[in-house]
Design brief:
The chain contains 18 helices and no strands. It has 393 residues and is mainly alpha-helical.
Length: 393
């Protein structure tokens, strides 16, 4: 089989299984490159890694929508998607996401070549990373609003947001420090506790999920463009995830559809533009790019965006194919049972992959995530777990 097909299958698999990322398979492939060299050339292995990263960015919305388990890229989409599932619109959320990812890949192609052409300007922008992260942090906290209680209540709520940002940031710092020393990623238990666990708690108290309708919907062009620009922003500044960039670009009046569109398009756009940033500046923004550089000596071919476009289209079709039976099964199961099953699955997966340390991080992160429900503030402040470590390292 051709390497593109292997990359497609790897991307689908990593997208469907929570806690598994293309970086996992990338590490395995690099570790076993001597064996794989008997079947594939270095260039073919690099193509497999690239295709898998694009496909993953499209498929990873499925566990976020149907079981509420996030990764770094889909964390902010979990709650809006959960609300759509409760209303019987789970498949609509999936269709919006998949189409957004494909169209964002198409819109990102001219940006890809512009990044390479405007090398000097891109480097100047990237040198402002610390300032940008600080401004983003302040902006996220300022998003908190209090309709009743006056200015004192408003600043009290923003103070709570700051505490959540700081607590999640400290936990993220030590989690990533452990990841750096041990080689085991702690992002899975960290983000599952901050974003997934509160959603599961809500699911345990939810009424029966309505029958899931197989209805297609298309993203709005405005939200799509916001997502693409967010993906561009993420590719430039480490510490700003797709979720954070989306939170910046979304207004208070936007609905679930706008959130899912922006997050999904940002994810796929970022997956592609990371390679353009490397080709232009030589700076690595992801483990996938690092592996690609190792296998190809840093050469980024000009036709790479076309490969990405083909991969995103194939992934979109696969998402539709996989989601139709999933929504039919979902309609027959009570939300409480789904939540309990996912919680058991999460705890088991975390223990297998990260041991007791991962469970401890998950427990602390869950307390912080639940605090956002109790304090009635946005869960986006938990992205301090990514931003604060980026500022400190």
């Amino acid at each position: 089989m051709v390497p593109e097909l292997y990359g497609f299958l790897i991307g689908v698999l990593t997208g469907l299984i929570p806690g598994i990322h293309p970086n996992t398979f990338t590490s395995l492939m690099l570790g076993s490159s001597a064996i794989l060299a008997g079947y594939f050339s270095m260039h073919e292995m690099a193509v497999m890694i690239f295709v898998s990263s694009i496909v993953y960015s499209v498929v990873n919305i499925i566990p976020a929508v149907f079981i509420g388990v996030p990764d770094e890229d889909t964390s902010i989409a979990v709650l809006p998607a959960h609300r759509m599932v409760i209303d019987g619109e789970g498949f609509k959320a999936i269709s919006i996401s998949a189409i957004s990812s494909f169209l964002s890949c198409l819109l990102s192609i001219p940006i890809f070549y512009a990044i390479i052409f405007l090398k000097r300007q891109i480097i100047e922008l990237m040198n402002l990373t610390t300032l940008v992260l600080l401004l983003v942090s302040l902006y996220l906290i300022s998003l908190e609003r209090e309709d009743f209680g006056g200015s004192l209540a408003l600043w009290k709520k923003r103070f709570y947001a700051f505490l959540i940002f700081l607590a999640s940031g400290v936990l993220g710092y030590f989690s990533i420090a452990f990841n750096t020393e041990s080689g085991i990623s702690m992002l899975f238990p960290l983000l599952s506790g901050l974003f997934g666990f509160p959603t599961l708690i809500v699911g345990m108290t939810s009424e029966k999920i309505g029958e899931q309708m197989v209805i297609y919907d298309f993203p709005s062009f405005k939200s799509l463009v916001r997502g693409v620009l967010s993906g561009f922003l993420v590719s430039l500044f480490p510490g700003i995830s797709s979720g954070v960039a989306t939170a910046i670009s979304i207004s208070r009046d936007d609905d679930e559809k706008a959130y899912i569109t922006a997050v999904s398009s940002a994810n796929t756009s970022n997956a592609l533009l990371n390679f353009a940033v490397f080709a232009s500046t030589g700076r690595v923004r992801s483990g996938v790019v690092q592996a690609y550089m190792h296998l190809t000596s840093g050469r980024i071919p000009g036709y790479l965006p076309l490969v990405a476009l083909s991969a995103s289209f194939s992934a979109m079709v696969a998402v539709f194919f996989l989601s139709i039976p999933a929504v039919k099964i979902l309609s027959k199961i009570a939300p409480s049972r789904i939540s309990i099953f996912v919680l058991v699955f999460l705890l088991t997966s975390i223990f297998i992959t990260t041991g007791f340390t991962g469970l401890a991080i998950f427990s602390l992160a869950s307390l912080i995530g639940l605090s956002t429900l109790y304090l009635r503030i946005r869960r986006i402040h938990c992205m301090g777990s990514i931003i604060l470590p980026a500022l400190l390292y």
